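Task 17 of the worksheet. Students: predict the tertiary structure of the chain below and write it out as structure tokens. Keep your answer in the requested format; marks are given for formatting as well as content.
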Amino acid sequence: MASWRAPLLWKLTAREMGRRPGRTLLTLFGIVIGVAAAVAVAVTLQGTRRAHSDMFQALAGRAALEVVDAGLGKFRPERIADVRHVAGVRAGVATLQVPTVLVGTKGAVPVMVLGIEPKKDEAARDYVLREGRFLDEKDGVVLEAGFAAANGIARGDWARFLTTAGDGELVVTGLLEPLGPAAFNGGAMLFMPLPTAQRLFGFLGDINSYQLILEDNADPARVLAEARAVVPPGFIVQEPSSRGALGRESMMPSEHGLAAISVSSLVAGAFMILNAFLMSLGERRRQLAILRALGATRTQVTRMLLREALTLGVAGSVLGLGLGFLLSLALRGVMGPLLGVTLPELHVSLEPFLLAFGLGPGIAVLATFVPARRAGRRSPLPDLLQVRGDRAEPVRRWPGYIGIASLGLVVILTIAIVAGWVPGAVARPFLAPLVGLYLAAWVLVVPLIFTPLLHLVRRLLTPILGMEAGLAVRQLQRHQGRTTLTAGVLLVAVIFALGFGQSLVNNLRDIDNWFDRISACDFILRKTMPDLTTTITTAALPDRLEEFEASPLVERIDKVSFLRGQAEGLDVSILACTYTPGRLPTLALVTGSPDEVRRGLLRGEVVLGTALAQRLGVTIGDHISLTTREGPRRIRIAGTTTEYTGGGMAVYIEWSTAAKLFDLPGVHAYMVTARPGQAEALAPLLQAYSARRSLLLQSRADFRAAFDRQTGGFLGFVWALIALVFVVASLGIMNTLTLTVLEQTRELGTLRAVGMKRRQVRKLILAQALALGLISLVPGLVGGIGLAVMISVATYPLTGQSVAFHLDPWLIGGCFLVALAIVALAAHFPARRAVRLRVIEALQYE
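Model answer:
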């Protein structure tokens, strides 16, 4: 008999899916959304995580190591001549890497200048010419062909760019294919002879990177150790890709936040699948009993049900994979401006496919395994003889106890993180699973509090909706399992939206406070907006603004320069700023008073970003080792500050102190403060000055608008993912209400026969939807606030950013109203179906 049962069971599976196409599609959609969110986040983070390191590795070509000065300053190649003789080094190539601005037909765009020795550089990099000729010892530049065309530059044209001394112009001798170093930052590169670059950018005889090409059989780790031993103090030997370390560090909080959001969508999808599957089993009990009576074994019935789940899981994975790649394109469009660079093209790898086809079928099978196994073991006789009745479903309490235990585990782990018992580096990878466990735990707890919640809902709705509210509550009570699971899906959405929404609001408030402090000036003048790591697009300006230094309209002009450095072996962003003795520093201080910090900075001390201080375990009064051009230097910490540059891995230092310790690359930004009441008069003068020199001038309002544009896309994407979870919840409610109407067909027909009007039927279905919403909202608000509190207290141990917690009543009210609106909208189609029932047909329904 087994020879015909397997094909027959496959046919039954296909027929069952076709009988309820709406429910099948809704269940499929839950899988698709969960898989798509996970794939989009994984693909995007995989690309952005490698963006900086891959770009710098492509720029380095075959060079396995590079020697740089502390702060990436300039130096004479002769000072590191000994490194060329380290065993395993085949060749050394001197280069000059300088960010600047190219002025094309579409305005000024940031580019990286690479000054090379054309003959020697062949050992390190490969260039593929599309047209023209490559560099020789004469002046000239080559560009990537696509980038040149986008900026209206052709071979033979003059490329105009900015130097610290003013404008520079060189003829374009050739155009390159977008390969190797020409693909750096979307092709935003200017290649020129090293002597030309040294002359134009004030590096006469100096370079800022000496790259090492190793023998084929050389051990990079051994060469690295020996090279570090022979270079003078103040020099760093590193892999070229390590320049991207700060960029990866900067993206860490966003990565873990997005991962937690994708896990939340998976949890919501899993409970939606379970709910739909249980509803399907409830309808098919008689069918399954007949199969058992005809000879199907328990194992065969269980396998048939799991096969249905697996089929939906595979189909959801296919669709979710495609949607995930589309979402990743949108997210990459958001992350590029946030990073301040052009991300490399998306490379399709095996990982997203493994993730999709692991998650989709995995979630579907895990969500349905227990009910499928129970359905297979169920005795067929009671279902063959089933009689309709009002007996309520039995509610199992053991899942609730598991939920309480899981909540306790989450609280204990949070306390362990906050207390420092678990290091942040160890805890960070477990953030997303911890959030998923927290959400699932609340869904499991709902059956334990279902009865008191239902009584509360009855009290709230009866005065408003009257008799219909009582009937609605009675129907929900008859199907407690289905009700609690449907409420659980909306509960996940409410907790998720409130927890992460409150965290976003608090972070935005903290960023606003930080922004107000660092932008305490009227105008900012620079060549271009800096990227996240301030190493790719941060071009230097002239050392002085002579036209405005003595202007009666100007109160003061402050200088800012960004450097890359190392503190206690960690890559950091060093911000050299001018601090006037009589003026308090514009820092969002966390520890240290403004007066003490000002005096400390003027004495040569430093202020650390809280993320860096937390990573090093130091605070005010401690000392850190900062790598300078004279070697490691112990410097006292004058205070700590909130800082979002470089992910908080930042060191503030006074300008003159920085000039002694590092080779400053020049001024990256001028902060111009007008005398009281003179900002409007000063603005046109600065505008004319910046226009003549193709500089970027921003008022404080302009700067804020640019900053909001950089972060707004990312925040919008996060809110969109939150909205998707609400969409999944609304579909679950619609699914449940549709089945409820189907089950109530005879009952509704009876009510219509004894005089119930259509509007009362509509009110009855709406009351069921509102009751579901309120059952979800009460624990959802508690769980959402709890999640927001846990995120807030764990933020500093995990990221080093100290963010104050403020409960936002508008967000709570918004979540409440959105949830009620969703359940009301979800009730529309089931209610329309209910009011269209014909009384005679409804009374005859079985």
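Marker's comment: The CA atoms of residues 475 and 636 lie 70 Å apart. Confidence is low (pLDDT under 50) at residues 387-392.
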